[in-house]
Design goal:
GMP Synthetase, Chain A, domain 3, five-stranded mixed β-sheet, 4 helices, 5 strands
Amino acid sequence: MINRKKFEQIRKDIIADRGQLSLFALFLLEGAEDQWDLVVAAPWLDADQTAALRYLSKKLTMRLSKRELLEIARIVLIEQNDPSLKKLLRDTIVEGGEVREIENSEFAGLALRRALILEAKPASAAATRRAS
């Protein structure tokens, strides 16, 4: 079972280290056997997705136990201009430590059994990129 508190702390750490997140969510796809996708979008990750993946993987391994890591199928990076992200951010705003749980939904054509959204807000024009 996903430990929400740990992911809330990971979200806080990332914002403190790198700045604004447009999306930080866990998606459980239909048919998935309790393996979640960590879905992340942020202004700073578009510049170097390889470095962003390394950074996010390191954050997960620092905070999660080996058993908890096995609950994560993959890390999915979404670019700021992705139409599915824009639609989600028009319909859903989650910030400031709020967590929204959604069941039986869809994102980018994928059927979701559950989603835990820990951050969802449009990037501000003043969002500052921080170095890796």
